[in-house]
Amino acid sequence: MEMHHLIIHFLIVVTQFLTGVLTNGFIVVVNVVDFIKHRQMAPLDLLLSCLATSRITLQMLIILSHLVLLSFVKMSVLTKLNTVLMFVSDWGLWLATWLGVFYCARITTISHPMFFWLKRRISKLVPCLILGSTLYSFIMSGFHEKQSVNLIQNVMLNFFSKNATHLMGIESAATSVLIFHFMVPLLVFLIALLVLIVTLGRHTWRMRAMSPGTRDPRSRAPLRALLSILSFLILYFSHYMMSILFMFQTLQFGSFLFEFCSLTVAIYPSIHSVILILGNAKLKQSAKRFLLCGQ
Question: In the CATH hierarchy, which fold is given to the domain comprising 3-294?
């Protein structure tokens, strides 16, 4: 890989790291301060804090993996780092999935007994969902540790070779299990957000039909929520697809496709956290006060 490409790539990674740490760190600090004041934390705040913590850790591991890769350390160190990275990434995907389910259960209105049960109990289920996701991600990352050895060898071959023709293969059975493992949170997330998008779309259409030509703020709120959910869906799906492509395809280190996948995977934790801040009343007000104090 040419030196100027390497420098540009590393500068992009550092920029994403700083943005991710600042935005997600802001979410954690606001919720922790609120917890200290009131001696309790709302389920949504707990979920957002855990999600922000996972993304801070993910950004740190991404930049650490770049530093470790450039230092040419032993393969065992890279393998352990990749296992931890897989755990944190999977944990963050599950937390983002439960955030989508939480919004779906709290906002949508569907006349079904199971949905009514979920709507009433989702707040109490949040700690259990977080704990279950943590244990599940930990177990699965340990299960896929052997496959991560081949993934790291592929990365090293891509880094050192311009034509990586001797890439290590991954067993088809292990690949199928790994793909299924990543498909589960994606399917749950898609179902929850599609239901939420349909509900918000219908509500927005009804509000506009009832008051055509007016600029009622109440009619704008569902539209803003719908745009926020759509951006959430696009970012989540793009991050998921690029991660799969990055893991299972032969991407030459330094190529345009490699750079695009790396950018998409790393930008999701930062951009979506900005959307979460803008869409949450408490976080948005705290951000405004922080910016006003800085002026």
Answer: Rhopdopsin 7-helix transmembrane proteins (1.20.1070)
